[in-house]
Amino acid sequence: MTKKYTRGIIRIALLIGTIISLYFVPWPIVKAWMTPLPKTVQEQVNKVSEYGFDGIIVYVDKKNKPPAFYVSGYKNRDSKTPAEPHSLFKIASVSKLYTAVAITKLVNNGRLSLDKTLADYFPELSDKIENADKIMIRMMVQHRSGIPNYTDTKNYWVHPKQNDKERLELVLDLPANFEPDTDFEYSNTNYLLLSKLIEKVTGKSKFKYISEEILTPLNLKSTYGSIQDVNLDDVMSGYYVGYENDLKKDDNGVMLATAEDLGKFIRALNDGSVFKDKKEQEIYTSIYEYEHTGLIPGYQTIAKYHKDIDAVVIQFTNTVDFEGYNWNLSEIMYNRIVKILRKKN
Predict the structure, then answer these.
(1) pLDDT tens digits, residue range 158-179?
(2) Are the C-beta atoms of residues 253 and 294 closer than 8 Å to each other?
(3) Which of 24, 292, 318, 325 has the highest CB neighbour number within 10 Å of its CB?
């Protein structure tokens, strides 16, 4: 009788444990993965609302084929304006690829050294940023500096700063997160400082240098340095879950581009045509990556080249939630699109 009673208690405990565990299962992700894969990219893109996004733009460039555009949902949900393939989009951290290429070009022509330190170029920061005399430029490019990330400061996205001076001030005098080159930690502060370095060395704005050295040679005419430089009607609206206002007017200090312009840049980056010569490409390969994602309130971007199918795939989605599974679902959407393309290859 005692053994039966004990077994019964154990079964009840296991059942309760199973029920509780089911509560923590990420069901939206499970559902997205388990749904049968559609036959076409457009069918997958049409599921945008099921994934919790207001709108989506997908650009596919398969070599020797005309570029393909896929859209669904809204460019602006308030006016019910349909998503438009050539809308401008805030590409957020994807802009780091352009910055890294710019640094590479300056190194290649002898105007910068990857082995000089932050203090060498900005002596005024020696007593403001810990280890400034040990942090080499290459460490900043590679996110191995230990400099704290300004977007990780308390409530940053609740009250974002309006310019780089204010953003940098958030981390001045803070202790380093680790000793230089002993660890990796993604930090937007690294690229803020690299942007300042490009401007100090060239005597012009970072975007002007990028425009002259990268955009113009590649004939990219739909890439911009700031929301201040564009017609707002051309920009895809951005939304944050639980917040009703359109975020496209917010000046986050990030670049904007169409999916096509970004796709052409990713192609040029990966086939080497963005570089002056092999030496320049080798410098870049030694310091940074060839794909990137971007995430700010209202805007998330995935920009990658897939060598196995020789295709660049860009995805823009315009609804963000830093909590929950929002980013995971954008990655699932992207990965399913690539899977469809592989099946068709």
Answers:
(1) 888 889 999 999 999 999 999 9
(2) no
(3) 318
What is the largest distance, in Å, between two alpha-carbon atoms of the chain? Answer: 87
Q: Which residue has the higher pLDDT, 313 or 253?
A: 313
Residue 142: how many CB atoms within 10 A of its CB? 18
What is the rounded distance in angstroms from the CA atom of residue 177 to the CA atom of residue 165?
21
Mean pLDDT of 45-58: 96
Q: What pLDDT sits at residue 25?
A: 46
The span from the CA of 207 to the CA of 303, in Å, is: 20
Section 30-57 average pLDDT:
90
The pLDDT score that the predictor gives to residue 19 is 44
The predicted model scores a pTM of: 0.91
> Which pLDDT does position 158 carry in this prediction?
82
Among residues 336, 300, 306, 315, the alpha carbon closest in space to that of 29 is found at 336
Structure tokens at 158: 């609740």
